Amino acid sequence: MGRKLERLKINLGPFLPLVVQSPSPVVDVNPEWRSESMKLITRADLDGLACAVLLKEVEIIEEVSYVTPHEINEGFLEITKSHIIANLPYDSRAGLWFDHHSSEGERSDILEDFEGSFQLAPSAARVIFNHYKSHRFYKYEYLLSEVDRIDSAQLTQMDITFPEGWVLLSYILDPRTGLGEYQGYGINNEHLLQRMVELMAEYSAEEILRMHDIKQRVKRYEEQEKIFKTMLEQKSKKEGNVIITDTRGMARVPNGNRFLIYTLFPEANISLRIMDGKDGLGTELAIGHSILNRTSFVNVGDLCERYGGGGHEGAGGVEFSHDIEDEKIQEIVGALKD
Length: 338
Ligand SMILES: [Mn+2]
Description:
Elements: H1 3-10, H2 17-21, E1 38-42, H3 46-58, E2 61-66, H4 69-74, E3 83-86, E4 96-99, H5 102-105, E5 116-118, H6 124-132, H7 141-151, H8 157-161, H9 165-173, H10 189-202, H11 205-209, H12 212-235, E6 236-239, E7 242-246, H13 260-264, E8 270-276, E9 283-289, H14 300-306, E10 310-311, E11 315-320, H15 326-336
Parallel strand pairs: 1-2, 1-3, 3-4, 4-5, 7-8
Antiparallel strand pairs: 6-7, 8-9, 9-11, 10-11
Helix pairs in contact: 3-6, 3-10, 9-12
The structure holds manganese (II) ion.
The site of manganese (II) ion (MN) has 6 residues, from loops.
């Protein structure tokens, strides 16, 4: 983050001078100030859904679509001034943009007077909350505090092994947990994401978890988690402070909670996952700081960049187009050691 970020942080856009000057923390931006309806593009995780819930309170949202950061960066999506992008990378064609990912703050192509807001907040939903300061958001205070905690991975061991409430819902919805690939649910994932926005505005997490379509997924999550845990135990070892999980050569690698590995090795502070590349070609590495033992000083993004990959301080990855030699892996493990 450089000077660019500082400027973005104080640039609240041309519509909010009153908010900035007001001594009161509660100023409702007139929700009717934008009369045309907007289309929201957001990420398919709990933060992205929370962005949709909040924006529906203050804007006229006629459609919500869920895309990946990659799809935005490719530039093939049709994006116009009537689109709002939330919890995803910047695109200058959009009418409004809300995000909190630090890598976006370093971009040099972001227009100074873009509409919306960028802050280094724990969640994109929090950025939207701070931007509109609407009294309509008050009923979501608990949801917001949980989304903040989940999106910035401020989780406890219990949140990982015995998740409840919004934490459990976040795992079930997160594409990284891999439940979406499973067929046979009453409603498909696309449909569920659309319905979740309405459910989150009306019901508590406990009430949503008691609904039939969600219960099916919780059951599936719990079954899958046992298989995933067994796989992790069989395929992982600890070298000093480093956890190494090697799933190369496995016909089918089970998916599951990406934080589970840190509960199995609470004394380690960083993990390295070695996998076969996509379509069985090459090798992929994924590296991440433990969220339960936050003592690693390794800048994972920088390390991955040295091998042709990327990421941010706490997590990153590298893809090799060939089978990687053990020597190179040992070199990387060496760099991860305290
Ligand atoms: Mn987010």
